[in-house]
Amino acid sequence: MTIRERTESGERMLLSPYAALSEKTRGRVRPLEPCDLRTEYQRDRDRVIHCKAFRRLKFKTQVFLSPEGDHYRTRLTHTLEVSQVARTLARALRLNEDLTEAIALGHDLGHTPFGHIGERTLNELLKDGFRHNEQSLRVVEVLENDGAGLNLTWEVRDGILHHSGAGFPSTLEGECVRRADRIAYLNHDLDDALRAGILKDFELPADCLRVLGASHGERIDTMIRDIVDVSDNQPHLSMSPRVEEAMNGLREFMFEKVYRDGWRDLEEKRCDFVLRAMFDYFCSHPGEMPEEYIMITYRDGLERGVADYLSGMTDRYAIRTFRELFVPSSFHTF
Questions:
Q1: What's residue 63's pLDDT?
Q2: Cα three-residue angle 310-311-315, rounded to 5 degrees
Q3: What residues have CB less than 8 Å from 194, skipping those under 6 apart?
Q4: At 237, is the secondary structure helix, strand, or coil?
Q5: Cα dihedral sign, 124-125-129-131
Q6: How far, in whole angstroms, is CA 131 from its chain's centroid?
Q7: What is the CA radius of gyration of the chain?
Q8: Residue 28 CB partners (closer than 8 Å, separation 6+)
Q9: Phi, psi at residue 12, to the nearest 5°?
Q10: Which one of 14, 159, 279, 287 is separated from 135 by 20 to 30 angstroms, measured CA to CA?
Q11: What angle separates helix 97-106 from helix 154-161, to the nearest 10 degrees?
Q12: How far is CA 240 from CA 211, 246, 328, in A?
């Protein structure tokens, strides 16, 4: 018996009847020979971690644009916190932790520079719109590995696509990531907003904190425990009405005071201007993009290729490219 087969046998014995078993995957677009060490979902997790789009997340905005402080979250640290919360849920509910981790690590690979500001701008520029969950799926199916994609299993791709938006994951592991994404961003964005002075402790909604907890750790613990208590041995994940109401109240507070408040209006306008200017430029000069994106314009259309190029940029690369295109250089002699 190989190590993989031993792991799969353990899954059959230990996991919930509602868990997605590695040996029962719906497979890949291009079948692979089984690995003697790793299950299919473990292979997917490793493929995501080693891809270029994952490494770029460390220089993409979460909420605070190109933060200079060492302790503010980036898109990468957000991804790691989502993975931690999702794996905790999966382990407690006896679900497939490897599948959960693979989905969590890949869920934001398609996010734009400048966070949701960039997503909003590209959504306005593209006639078919732009949504980061759909772009994350495009990254793993089309853009990575020189156009070959990562060839992930169906369950991982389904979880990545449905971690946000109107659709719903087909696996409970995908539901863990969808829940964990909200738990993570609400709590770490609140933590960062307090650190930045955007919020003060006395401003936080007391009725929500009485239910969820006064500290960062207490709130995460309350949300996770509530999901586990309500969802154990159930076909779907849910929360108790009391905790879900408090969580939604905290979310409404964050949208009002942090996500939609005017404290960063000027920077948002600048980010929007940078992306619009580069979108127009590369639509007029597609030959100046890297070759892989030029090929996409031939196959999928000009705007699609430009959007793929821009959405893959980190914050600092987008700013540097903008400067090279539009800011005059000082004269110097050689």
A1: 86
A2: 80
A3: 200, 201
A4: coil
A5: negative
A6: 11
A7: 21
A8: 40, 151, 152, 153, 154
A9: -60, -35
A10: 287
A11: 50
A12: 11, 10, 58
pLDDT of 333 over the 70 cut: no
Q: Which residues pair with 61 in a beta bridge?
A: 74
Nearest to 136 by CA among 311, 305, 263: 311
Token look-up 């995908």 returns 174
Question: Could you give the CA distance from residue 170 to residue 151 in angstroms, rounded to a whole number?
Answer: 19
CA 66/CA 105 separation, integer angstroms: 21
Mean per-residue pLDDT over the chain, rounded: 95
pLDDT at 331: 66
- Report which of 232, 235, 88 is spatially closest to residue 170, judged by C-alpha positions: 235
Alpha-carbon distance of 216 to 11, in angstroms, equals 33
DSSP state string for 89-107: HHHHTT--HHHHHHHHHHT
- Quote helix, strand, coil % in the chain, to nearest 5: 65, 0, 35
**SS3 state of residue 61:** strand
> Would the pTM of this model clear 0.85, i.e. be above it?
yes
What's the token pair of residue 227? 């999901």
Structure tokens at 127: 């006639």
CB 193 within 8 A of CB 258: yes
CB 249 within 8 A of CB 32: no
Q: What's the confidence (pLDDT) of residue 71?
A: 86
Domains recognised in the chain with CATH numbers = 32-326 (1.10.3210.10)
Q: How many CA atoms lie within 13 A of 38 on its CB side?
A: 12
Rounded to 5°, the CA angle 121-123-129 comes to: 165
pLDDT at 263: 76
Cβ distance 177 to 108 under 8 Å?
no
